[in-house]
Amino acid sequence: MAETGDGKKEDADYKRLQSFPLIRHTDMPEEMRVETMELCVTACEKFASNNESAAKMIKESMDKKFGSSWHVVIGEGFGFEVTHEVKNLLYMFFGGSLAVCVWKCS
């Protein structure tokens, strides 16, 4: 089946839409939320095929920037229930179905 010019445009629009981070839930202050979201996107792009390395990069950066005891989970198709410090939780999606959860507990 031959692909038309419109099909290529639709694919490009879909990829652009799916690579935009989607915040599902957060209670972080605006500045921290933006920094954390950018860090998550950078790590997931850098380690696209290795979620463990991406999580490690995010955790180490968050520990350094905002103090220790940060936790990170990256993957598809998981549920979670965590206890966290107030104003220290971010749950987002990136690339369509890749979920990232970042939280701090003392």
UniProtKB/TrEMBL annotation:
Offer a single GO CC term for the protein: axoneme
Under the heading CDD domains, the entry gives: DLC-like_DNAL4
Q: What InterPro entries does the record point to?
A: DLC_sf, Dynein_light_chain_typ-1/2
Where is it chiefly localized?
cytoplasm
Could you tell me the keywords of this UniProt record?
Answer: Cell projection, Cilium, Cytoplasm, Cytoskeleton, Dynein, Microtubule, Motor protein
Quaternary structure and partners: Consists of at least two heavy chains and a number of intermediate and light chains.
Q: What role does this protein play?
A: Force generating protein of respiratory cilia. Produces force towards the minus ends of microtubules. Dynein has ATPase activity.
User: What's the protein called, per UniProt?
Assistant: Dynein light chain
What is the scientific name of the source organism? Answer: Culter alburnus
